[in-house]
């Protein structure tokens, strides 16, 4: 579980996001939505301790997150598909992480099987496609068998088979009790398997609701999550229609 209280994120003279209260529950697949620049990645980075909040506290499974200290043991994360040495193989990359985090080396083979990379695990990462790098990042996030999982745009670069695979993986993890928080722009996929939705905009949380409850707010002429999202985000018509100059 992720528990956030009185959080302010920003840079000198600039406030990116203010969150008085947010709880991301265990046993649920929560999607984090928002336009580029609304603070999705900043929020994820603060949860895993990469960014120091200006104010407030973050707890992951009851452990207070302290920026630039050890990642909470129960947290798995994949927030940057570029965070790889292209000279390393997938197996070497994952072995390095297990040593750094004090995890059992045997988990490397397990997660390579889970993400479908066992047969190409000794190929250098510089020769991997974006979709394959996403799978390596997800494998790294799963090494610790996390109780809480953070993923930033994990669907980018995946083909149809890969999207179906991660859909089933995330569903299985959430159903098994894992707290899963995923930032994405792919609303069609969100509609398929979301339990809960958090929408960011205007430096704050615009919506924090179960998916079913959010869809119950469909207004006249609205038929999809995209319609609800555009209304809640209060986007100008020209932007929403893609005609902005």
UniProtKB/TrEMBL annotation:
Check the record and name the InterPro entries matching this protein: AAA+_ATPase (IPR003593), ABC_transporter-like_ATP-bd (IPR003439), ABC_transporter-like_CS (IPR017871), P-loop_NTPase (IPR027417)
Keywords linked to the UniProt accession: ATP-binding, Nucleotide-binding, Transport
Which positions are tagged coiled coil?
Answer: none
Q: Which Gene3D superfamilies match?
A: P-loop containing nucleotide triphosphate hydrolases
Instruction: Output the superkingdom of the source species.
Output: Bacteria
Q: List, in alphabetical order, the Gene Ontology terms for molecular function in this entry.
A: ATP binding; ATP hydrolysis activity
Limits of the ABC transporter domain? 2-227
**Membership in a protein family:** Belongs to the ABC transporter superfamily.
Put simply, this protein is called ATP-binding cassette domain-containing protein
């Amino acid at each position: 579980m992720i528990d956030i209280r009185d959080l302010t994120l920003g840079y000198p003279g600039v406030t990116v996001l203010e969150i008085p209260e947010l709880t991301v529950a265990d046993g649920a697949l929560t999607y984090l939505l928002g336009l580029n620049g609304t603070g999705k990645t900043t929020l994820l980075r603060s949860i895993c301790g990469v960014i120091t909040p200006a104010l407030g506290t973050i707890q992951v499974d009851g452990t207070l997150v302290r920026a630039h200290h050890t990642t909470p043991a129960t947290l798995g994360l994949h927030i940057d598909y570029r965070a790889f040495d292209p000279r390393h193989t997938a197996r070497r990359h994952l072995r390095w992480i297990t040593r750094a985090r004090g995890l059992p080396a045997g988990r490397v083979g397990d997660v390579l099987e889970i993400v479908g990379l066992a047969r190409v695990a000794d190929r250098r990462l510089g020769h991997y496609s974006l979709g394959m790098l996403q799978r390596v990042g997800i494998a790294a996030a799963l090494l610790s068998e996390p109780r809480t999982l953070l993923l930033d745009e994990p669907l980018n670069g995946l083909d149809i088979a890969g999207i179906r695979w991660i859909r089933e993986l995330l569903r299985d993890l959430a159903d098994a009790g894992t707290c899963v928080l995923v930032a994405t722009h792919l609303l069609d996929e969100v509609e398929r398997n979301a339990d809960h939705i958090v929408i960011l905009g205007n430096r704050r949380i615009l919506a924090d609701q179960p998916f079913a409850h959010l869809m119950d707010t469909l207004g006249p002429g609205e038929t999809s999550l995209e319609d609800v999202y555009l209304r809640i985000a209060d986007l100008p018509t020209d932007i929403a229609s893609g005609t902005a100059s």
